[in-house]
Design brief:
Length: about 180
């Protein structure tokens, strides 16, 4: 009886050890995690209809990528999920991207905000390049600014310019200051 119990205990220890080794193999290394982050960022930025009025963020947890943000086109939500699924090392994609409701009033507001921000002389340098660093998200007249700027002064100026556009109910300035 005692020997059976010892054999059972030894077998259980081997199974637990094998299970832990399997769990460690399933978790990507820090190097592969960095590669996944780089590839996800690259693939999302290369989406053809990803514009200044869309904001997509992501989190990588092991082999699971969670997509967050807001977009104005439903196809952009599905396209982002599809390109991320094809990345080597990604097993699961949790797509939490919100598709903003269509609204001609919000569309007009987006255009006015773009002009107020990107065509203001002190902020025109942010208009250069294909991917604009300041994202303008409008939902039912409420504005959220996402992205990066070079200084606290630029962040405040963008917020002031957005608040000055008629038709905005509120402005949330989530811009991050990143030194160039």
């Amino acid at each position: 009886m005692k020997s059976r119990l010892l054999t059972l205990l030894a077998g259980l220890c081997v199974l637990v050890t094998l299970g832990n080794a399997q769990d460690q193999r399933d978790q990507p290394s820090a190097k592969s995690q960095e590669r996944i982050i780089r590839e996800v960022r690259h693939e999302l930025l290369m989406l053809p209809y990803f514009g200044v009025y869309d904001y997509i963020a992501f989190k990588v947890d092991g082999s699971t990528v969670t997509l967050l943000g807001q977009v104005i086109r439903p196809t952009l939500k599905s396209d982002s999920e599809n390109v991320v699924k094809r990345i080597e090392g990604v097993d699961k994609v949790d797509n939490q991207i919100e598709v903003l409701p269509p609204s001609p009033m919000d569309d007009r507001l987006r255009t006015r905000l773009f002009r107020a921000i990107y065509q203001y002389p002190a902020l025109q340098r942010y208009e250069l390049g294909v991917q604009k660093p300041i994202r303008i998200i409008v939902k039912n007249g409420r504005v959220t600014l996402e992205g990066v700027v070079d200084s606290e002064g630029d962040k405040n100026l963008v917020g002031i310019r957005a608040n000055g556009v008629s038709g905005t109910f509120s402005v949330t300035n989530n811009l991050q200051v990143v030194k160039p």
